[in-house]
């Protein structure tokens, strides 16, 4: 299989649901391209099931790294910078899960990229994003589109759709 986009997060925990909201937005944009878009509610080892069998995976999630809320970063999976759901004491981090999955012989993607959106509030129950994170949605959608469907015109997202539209580390 080709590419999968995984929106990760808790949709009823304010900004933690940003990955789910970005996945919903890109699902329509990627319709008919062969890119699968799924939602997941936990990271680590459980995430392996969502990405197993694909050549490329793009994971979008909230992160709490001390950056200004709404900051969007596109980073490699093994850079050691976790996102809120990719670090769990129950599952381990993404890098560890990928390493274990490969040692077990799972068919995991050759390329795993993360699009992280710095959260402002991940403690309050609510389905609405904070203002800063809501304002960052177009930039996050553009970063996911650039990672999942390079060269595709995302229409209406302007220059933010290029890799430089979001902070990029890879």
TrEMBL record:
UniProtKB keywords: Aspartyl protease, Hydrolase, Protease
InterPro entries from the UniProt entry: Pept_HybD-like_dom_sf, Peptidase_A31
Q: Which domain of life is it from?
A: Bacteria
A molecular function annotated in GO for this UniProt entry is: enzyme activator activity
Q: Where are the transmembrane segments?
A: none
Please name one Pfam family that this protein belongs to: HycI
Q: Which family does it belong to?
A: Belongs to the peptidase A31 family.
What is this protein identified as?
Uncharacterized protein
Organism name? Citrifermentans bremense
In the record, what lineage is assigned to the organism producing the protein?
Bacteria, Pseudomonadati, Thermodesulfobacteriota, Desulfuromonadia, Geobacterales
